[in-house]
Amino acid sequence: MTAEPVGLRARKKQQTRAAISDQATRLFLARGFDRVTIAEIAEAAQVAKMTVTNYFPRKEDLALDTHDEFVTLPAATVRDRQVGESALAALRRGYLAAVAARNPLIGFAGAEFARLITGSPALVARLREFHEDREATLAETLADETGAEPDDVVPRVAAAQLAGVHRVLFTEALRRTLDGAANDRIAADLTRLAETAFALLEPSLAGYAVRAVA
């Protein structure tokens, strides 16, 4: 009997993970995050309860299933910045592109999902951890990109300012979504707010982490 191909196993795991996440989201939207149990999610997805916790050790991550993408997005933008482009300029450019694409990672998640998140203290706390993890990841990337010493506070201070802008703009996107604004209106507002917010950082960060010619 031959072993199951690695690619097939990986695909089955991905399908199982997606099925669990989909059923969890359906139940959360219907009844609220705090009222749904792991056992109910397992039953809906037709898997064992242990299977759910193996894929999602934290219940919050069944609703917020984008941790890695959320956390690494600004850092990846900095790593991919162009020659002559600062970290600030790259993040401004990347954010405006995300607005144009209506990227859910910056807050275009829809009214139902926005209500789900804000209606649960556990999810609000987990989202706060997402923001903190993103700031820490950005600080590490800025330190690597600038060759900073381990005790240099500049990458951490810069990351706090840059991630702070993203955090404020995410909150604004969420607030406008809850107020019933259409995505086009939200996008226009975020574009205006982003230009203002990133401009505030130019005096201190316009010349920081500029990519040199290789």
TrEMBL record:
Signal sequence coordinates: none
- For the keyword Amino-acid biosynthesis, the answer is no
**What is the species of this protein?**
Actinocatenispora thailandica
Q: Which GO terms describe its molecular function?
A: DNA-binding transcription factor activity; transcription cis-regulatory region binding
Q: Which residues form the HTH tetR-type domain?
A: 14-74
User: Matching Pfam families, A to Z?
Assistant: TetR_C_14, TetR_N
Report the InterPro entries cross-referenced here. Homeodomain-like_sf, HTH-type_TetR-like_transc_reg, HTH_TetR, MftR_C
Question: What name does this protein carry?
Answer: TetR family transcriptional regulator
Indicate the residues that the entry says bind DNA.
Answer: 37-56
Which keywords appear in this protein's UniProt record, sorted alphabetically? DNA-binding, Transcription, Transcription regulation
Q: PROSITE patterns per the record? A: HTH_TETR_2 (PS50977)
